[in-house]
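anyone seen this seq b4? input:
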Amino acid sequence: MSNFHSERPTSSRGIVEDDGKLVRAEGTANHVTRSKNYEILRRAFREYYFNHGNSIECPKELRQREFGFRHFASEREPPRMIRHLTFASEGEILATAIREVPCDIYCSNAYYRFPSYPMKEKELLGADLIFDIDAKDLNLSCRNSHSYLICENCLQAIKNRQGLDRCQLCNSQNLVVESIPCNKCFDGTKNEVRRLLTVLIDDFGIDERSIHTYFSGNEGFHLYVVDPNFLNLDAQGRSDISGYLLGKGLIPETIGVYRRIGIENKKSTRTIHGTEHIFDDVLPGRDFHIMAPKSDEKRDEQMNYSIKLPKSGLKYGWQMRLSKRLGIKDSSEKRLINIVQQKGGYYSFKIELEKIGKELGINIDPQVTMDVHRVFRMPGTLNSKSGLAKTKCSDLESFNPLYEACLLGDSETKVKANAPIKFTLKDQEFQVDEKIALLPAYAAIYLVCKRLATAI
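predicted toks r here
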């Protein structure tokens, strides 16, 4: 483990926000800090694009894509986002990146006839299907141990503590959370990626070769489905797929539990978030009708359903996942009857399935998937939230984000940490206190991007 110490500086603090904006601090020192942060970040990012320009992965049908640049905040200008850009070649993108040095470079998942036109005039031709999995959405137990609360008023940074709602230094309630992901975070996100891949391949029949996995450059992963069968799917269709993956909208009929009223002689076709489940005609089975005494309303509710297990069994999709969770098999009608009775009947069982769906569902961000006009960070470009690169994962199991995506140089760089911090990059452990420290450039930029240090 490396330790870095020096004397405390006397200047005010400054921290870079998520979007590249430098948080204001009182006094003239803030302008100096803002300028230094701007200079150190631009220098590091320009050097990256000069040395690693071949890492940028351009999308197919380049001329039909919309691009966007987000620019660093400077002493004189706030951060700004520019969209509706077009490029004719990979070389043109790289030359622009080296010349203008944006903090983030984005590309649409959509294909447009006129990508540089205003949104309503672009003429959508289709869009790749993209999923986003992020550590912050997984409720991991390790989260608090490596998260920090940063006061946007005085820039105080302290370890995250539950219940703390105001800055202990200036009493401001304007606090934001910043996290340094650990190995457990990446293990959790990788596991979620594996689950997503399994469902996309097994339930939706997508060829594994059509799915491309990328580390986002911060705390998560993006999965691109490049398949013509999904290219023209509208926002509602993408929302339906998201709902299926999240386990939303599950109904008892999914595994053969029906409301008793009117079920005889009724052909039932159910659609759960875009995936058809036909229970009566295509998947016939034995029908168990259970009637309750009318005098007992509670018992009537418990018993007012029927069971008809699918003829093909419970081997696929949510039928398989639910049957495993409930411990039932293809011939377990009696066990399923007992489970439904114990839960309190059809509607109570439906509530139980909703809970199971939430538990077994895959934690994707549905808004990302359904938005066909979103722009995504380009593979091979740097993430301004970390200074790490968005990197393709050829082997998810062995991929180490904090090593393989850490591509900045190692020249000595002076920064001041705003709180005692431990972190690991490129297999090297760092321990930095609230003093000026000399760090390798990749480590210094990481802390500045995370808003946990300022340039000196």
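The radius of gyration is 27 Å. Residues 2-29, 262-295 have pLDDT under 50 and may be disordered. kinda curious what u guys think
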